[in-house]
Design a protein that fits this description.
The chain is an alpha+beta fold and 247 residues long. The protein folds into 2 domains: 30 residues; 206 residues, Lipocalin. 20% of the residues lie in helices and 45% in strands. The chain has an 8-stranded antiparallel β-barrel with strand order 1-4-5-6-8-9-10-13. A hairpin with a 2-residue loop joins β8 and β9.
Length: 247
């Protein structure tokens, strides 16, 4: 006997409708996240010094010997922020999530002795509650989760040991040095050592660097938005500081 298919039960119809609704929500979310609001992440900070710039800087330093020592303050062009790898559901994101701010204050003291330039002291404060990325939704969420910038509106760095700059940095070329200091992020302080690139071009001392750490090291949890958007277990804080000699 041939059994003709009957009408699906109300329960089955409800399950199918519910499943279709969930699928539609996911598809719409993917469309909004990747198509309507595509990620456009800025590249990591990097020093770039041309030969002409280096020559100009070397000439400037040579002509004003002894002018490097003193107090150097944060100047226009300085930026700091975060970089994290996002994941959408079980798929890798198209690019990093990056948020930055130019709301940075602080200063460094440079000394000179027998031709050696040293960063003797330095301290900086970043208003992390002003961080901006390419998505306002993300910017709103970091006030409440992860960085919790509404609760911890600032992050600071205090130099723990003097840093000697090589003659190449003073001459306008890029040089690298290990920098040790105390970072205070999310209300937690940790002493860390990181590589930093320096160059002195004319009247501007520029320093570029980054630090990568597990979220839990600074008492944070990796953010998750509704189970759809998650980030990996490590975060990177990066900076590009421009310092000018205080008058």
């Amino acid at each position: 006997m041939i059994r003709l298919p009957g009408k699906p039960s109300g329960k089955r119809v409800a399950v199918l409708v519910l499943g279709g609704g969930v699928t539609l929500i996911v598809v719409v979310f993917l469309l909004v996240y990747f198509v309507i609001f595509p990620t456009s992440s800025p590249k990591p900070f990097k020093l770039a010094t041309s030969t002409a710039t280096a020559a100009t800087a070397a000439s400037s330093v040579s002509a004003s010997s002894g002018s490097v020592g003193g107090r150097w303050s944060v100047a226009t062009g300085s930026q700091a922020g975060y970089r994290v790898r996002e994941k959408l559901a079980f798929l890798p994101a198209q690019s990093d999530a990056v948020g930055r701010t130019s709301s940075i204050t602080g200063a460094a003291k440079l000394t000179e002795s027998k031709g050696t330039t040293t960063i003797a002291t330095a301290s900086f404060e970043v208003a992390v509650n002003t961080l901006k990325s390419d998505r306002s939704m993300r910017d709103e969420k970091i006030h409440e989760i992860g960085l919790e910038s509404s609760r911890y509106p600032t992050a600071t760095f205090v130099l723990a040991a003097p840093v000697r700059l090589t003659s190449s940095a003073v001459a306008g070329h890029v040089t690298r040095a290990s920098v040790t200091g105390v970072f205070t992020i999310h209300g937690t302080s940790k002493k860390k050592t990181l590589p930093v690139e320096f160059t002195l071009s004319g009247s501007t001392l520029e320093a570029v660097g980054s630090i990568t750490f597990p979220w839990g090291e600074f008492g944070m949890s990796a953010p998750s938005i509704g189970g759809f958007v998650n980030v990996t277990e490590k975060a990177t804080m990066e900076f590009d500081l421009h310092l000018q000699r205080a008058q």
